[in-house]
Amino acid sequence: MIGFLRGKLVHKSPPFLMLDVNGVGYEVEAPMTTFYDLPAIGSEIILHTHLVVREDAHILFGFSTEADRSMFRTLIKVNGVGPKLALTILSGQSAEEFHRCIHNNDTQALVRLPGVGKKTAERLVIEMRDRLPDLTESFDSGGISVAGADKIKPVNNPKQEAISALCSLGYKPLDAGKMVQNISAEDKSCEDIIRLALQGTIR
Question: Where does the record place the Helix-hairpin-helix DNA-binding motif class domain (predicted)?
């Protein structure tokens, strides 16, 4: 099991990033909550990781905090929730926000996430409620592990990159386009646009 990675950030294209660890490039899938914290390309970062082994692939997931990784691991234990959906949930809400949804039985906020229907939202509330104490401990102890806070300047078209990232997270292309169409791209990175788009959807 790979518990964490420490290396140089060499590439990012949500939901994927590439980490150079002593000359070995690790491709990692990460939620947007992790991308928001990433420093500039070339900076050293530490990611908490979880390895999913399938018959056709080994997929490494990375998280900026222990709390996010703990929630990811708890989510994939829920019936009907796989790694892809768990990543989408984490991208749409922070671990703390999700905790509040479960505590308040707020299924309406959950069904706004792509891939989460009414039945899945109700199942999440029921099955996650008893597991929340462990997550609360992670909130208290888990800090941001990625180093630095510099924003990566947009290289190509940040709006188009944001649409592609939202599609990777499960949104339909038409819906993703509508989510970002009214957001000004001036002085904003791809991550900034995605953050604003998701905030507009969840509220």
Answer: 73-92, 108-127
How many domains in the chain?
3
Q: Report the distance separating Cα 15 and Cα 142, nearest Å.
A: 22
Residue 203, burial from CB neighbour count under 10 angstroms (0-12, 13-18, 19+): exposed
Whether residue 113 contacts residue 89, with contact meaning beta carbons closer than 8 Å, is answered with yes
Query: Are 25 and 9 within one domain?
Result: yes
Give the pLDDT confidence of 88-110 residue by residue, as tens digits.
Answer: 888 887 777 788 888 888 898 88
Which residues have C-beta within 8 Å of that of residue 143, sequence separation ≥ 6?
Answer: 65
Instruction: Count Cβ neighbours within 10 Å for each residue of 163-194 and write b for 16 or more, e otherwise.
Output: bbbbebbbbeeeebbebbeebebeebbbbbbb
Same domain for 54 and 71? no
- How many angstroms separate the CA atoms of 60 and 101, rounded? 27
Distances (CA, A) of 166 to 16, 143, 153, 170, 194: 12, 26, 19, 7, 7
Mean pLDDT estimate for the chain = 82
Of the chain, the end-to-end C-alpha distance in Å amounts to 37
Q: Which domain holds residue 42?
A: 4-63
Among 134, 147, 8, 10, CA closest to 71: 134
CA distance 105 to 96: 14
Q: What's the whole-model pTM score?
A: 0.68
Both 36 and 102 in a single domain?
A: no
